């Protein structure tokens, strides 16, 4: 079968690989119909995630047709068209029982901090991802969900990560009616976080980024007030002054370690890898939120460390909430929101690219070319 | 103090969004949503040890490295790209230390870089010359950013020319 193949930082290609097989009674084999490139795939693509081995296939946002099921999988049948949450979760461990499906303790031998994730390095379990014609889906009796008949497959693939991650970013902010919410990052997750902030009753939503074409998009899609930080002398001073000197009630970091916007953090974090990525968005979030406010982090950072103003977290009494999205927990509600028309996920898709052109798709997305917001890969056999 | 005039134009002209025009505004508003997820739910699980009904253990002949912070092997795991070569030896060494130790991660990052060279060697031994420009999306760069393409091509040519010149200089008879 054909699959994306990681060869090193900034280098990917299409490769013939062995067909996946059932390795556990709760596995399924899925023929991929759509697979997104996620902003967090770019952390892998840029070589920022430790234990990203040459030969890995990325891709944790995908839908597909069930081709084969293990003997313990009774809820799915061959031919079902399913959306597959990016979390590989058993559904029964200490953490899954808490609804912490991104932190499953039975799916990742290489690290205790995070559960298994498809195609997200050996630090997330060493699984092959969905940017391929076929993929092995562990715990298929728990995570995947059959796509409703009425749902557009383009919406379905966005429910495997982007929509629930953006929603959880807003949820973790503990937004109350009338709150001012600032979202750092106008990538797909930041856009979705801005949209979902309204569902929780936000009174004002501000998005900050440096890419005008994405700011233009979220200004209408959110809707949101948008600001290009390159036009601001100091992001934090601006945020204080535009909130009567207090700061935002909730600040969301929807960027993670691939941030731009600060020379020293770019040098230490992105170039020299002395930090787990560039944490300037988190830095701004901590300093822009009001005293007693909440910082919600869904941006992805590496597992080592970052220089952020933790003293200000103490002095301001800030609450920080963060996690990988718990997709199986949120999927039912996300489906309701799509059906009700509150969220239009497929509107974010700007590029539909044949899997064969995966290298070009990665470059377009990473270099922010051609107005790219969200690329979706379509295998030739989909 | 920043004056109104010193604020960006967009801020000076800001008009509040009319929330009545937003589909779904406030439908998930809930005063109980603070504190919110993720938070420990004691009603569902308050045991401190691994007393859950464990899934069937996956069997595999592939070498799987395991964090020393685990007290048992997780039931399911990926079997792709097992450790091999110099990078594999470094990865095995890294797993002698916990996830809390920087040496663990630094060794893994070092192994990743060496693994890239091993990947090129692997290609060559299989008779494949990796098309690195294509792997890096050069075609897309040409299609969508010709200026950037020309700049990068120029830098690469300059580096190659400089290296060639230095190489010739080094071989010049004394």
Overview of this structure, please?
The complex is a heterodimer of chains A (382) and B (174). Chain A is of the alpha/beta class and 382 residues long. Chain A has helices at 41-45, 153-158, 162-172, 188-199, 212-221, 235-241, 263-271, 280-288, 310-316, 327-340, 358-366; strands at residues 2-8, 11-16, 28-36, 62-69, 81-84, 87-88, 116-117, 134-137, 145-146, 180-184, 204-209, 225-228, 248-253, 289-297, 319-322, 351-354, 375-378. Chain A folds into two domains: 2-161 and 326-378, Alpha-Beta Complex (Quinone Oxidoreductase, Chain A, domain 1); 164-322, 3-Layer(aba) Sandwich (Rossmann fold), CATH 3.40.50.720. Chain A contains eleven helices and 17 strands. In chain A, the strands form four sheets. In chain A, strands 3, 4, 5, 8, 9, 16 and 17 form a seven-stranded mixed sheet that branches. In chain A, helix 3 crosses helix 4 (188-199), helix 3 crosses helix 10 and helix 6 (235-241) runs parallel beside helix 8. The longest helix of chain A has 14 residues, at 327-340. The two termini of chain A are 12 Å apart. The relative contact order of chain A is 0.16. Chain B has 174 residues and is mostly helical. Among the domains of chain B are: 65-130, no CATH class; 131-166. Chain B has six helices and no strands. Chain B has helices at residues 9-12, 85-94, 102-125, 132-135, 138-144, 146-171. The longest helix of chain B has 26 residues, at 146-171. The N and C termini of chain B lie far apart (69 Å). Chains A and B meet through strand 2, helix 3, strand 12, helix 6 and helix 10 of A and helix 2, helix 3, helix 4 and helix 5 of B.
């Amino acid at each position: 079968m054909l699959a994306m193949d990681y060869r090193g930082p900034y280098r990917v290609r299409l490769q013939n690989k062995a067909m996946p097989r059932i390795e556990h009674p709760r596995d399924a084999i899925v023929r991929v119909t759509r697979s997104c490139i996620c902003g967090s795939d770019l952390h892998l693509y840029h070589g920022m995630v430790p234990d990203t081995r040459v030969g890995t296939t990325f891709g944790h946002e995908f839908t597909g047709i069930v081709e084969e099921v293990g003997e313990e999988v009774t809820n799915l049948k061959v031919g079902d068209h399913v959306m597959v949450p990016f979390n590989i979760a058993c559904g029964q461990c200490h953490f899954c029982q808490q609804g912490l499906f991104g932190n499953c303790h039975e799916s990742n031998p290489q690290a205790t901090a995070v559960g298994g994730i498809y195609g997200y390095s050996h630090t997330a379990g060493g699984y092959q991802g969905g940017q391929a014609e076929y993929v092995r889906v562990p715990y298929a009796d728990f995570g995947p969900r059959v796509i409703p008949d009425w749902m557009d497959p383009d919406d379905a693939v966005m429910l495997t990560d982007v929509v629930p991650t953006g929603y959880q970013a807003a949820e973790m902010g503990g937004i109350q009616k009338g709150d001012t919410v600032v979202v750092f990052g106008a990538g797909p997750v930041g856009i979705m976080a801005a949209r979902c902030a309204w569902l929780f009753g936000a009174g004002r939503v501000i998005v900050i980024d440096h890419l005008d074409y994405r700011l233009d998009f979220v200004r209408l899609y959110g809707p949101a007030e948008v600001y290009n930080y390159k036009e601001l002398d100091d992001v934090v001073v601006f945020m204080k002054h535009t909130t009567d000197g207090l700061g935002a009630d909730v600040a969301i970091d929807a960027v993670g370690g691939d941030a731009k916007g600060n020379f020293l953090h770019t040098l230490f974090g992105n170039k020299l890898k002395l930090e787990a990525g560039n944490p300037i968005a988190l830095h701004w979030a901590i300093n822009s939120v009001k005293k007693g406010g909440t910082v919600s982090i869904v941006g992805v950072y590496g597992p080592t460390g970052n220089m952020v103003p933790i003293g200000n977290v103490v002095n301001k009494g800030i609450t920080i909430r963060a996690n990988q999205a718990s997709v199986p927990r949120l999927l039912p509600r996300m489906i309701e929101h799509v059906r009700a028309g509150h969220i239009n996920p497929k509107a974010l898709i700007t590029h539909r690219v044949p899997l064969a052109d995966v290298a070009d798709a990665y470059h377009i997305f990473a270099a922010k070319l051609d107005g790219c917001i969200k690329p979706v890969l379509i295998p030739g056999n989909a | 103090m920043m004056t109104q005039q010193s604020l960006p134009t967009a801020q000076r002209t800001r008009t509040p969004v009319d929330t009545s025009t937003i589909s779904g505004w406030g439908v998930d508003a809930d005063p109980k949503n603070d504190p919110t997820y993720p938070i420990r739910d004691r009603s569902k699980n308050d045991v401190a040890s691994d007393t859950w009904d464990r899934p069937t253990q996956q069997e595999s002949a592939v070498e799987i490295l395991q964090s020393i912070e685990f007290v048992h092997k997780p039931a399911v795991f990926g079997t792709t790209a097992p450790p091999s070569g110099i990078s594999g030896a470094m990865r095995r060494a890294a797993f002698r230390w916990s996830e809390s130790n920087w040496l663990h991660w630094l060794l893994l990052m070092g192994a990743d870089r060496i693994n890239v060279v091993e990947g090129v060697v692997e290609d060559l031994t299989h008779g494949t010359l990796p098309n690195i420009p294509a792997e890096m999306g050069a075609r897309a760069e040409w299609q969508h950013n010709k200026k950037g393409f020309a700049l990068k091509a120029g830098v690469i040519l300059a580096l190659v020319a400089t290296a060639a010149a230095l190489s010739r200089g080094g071989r010049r008879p004394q």
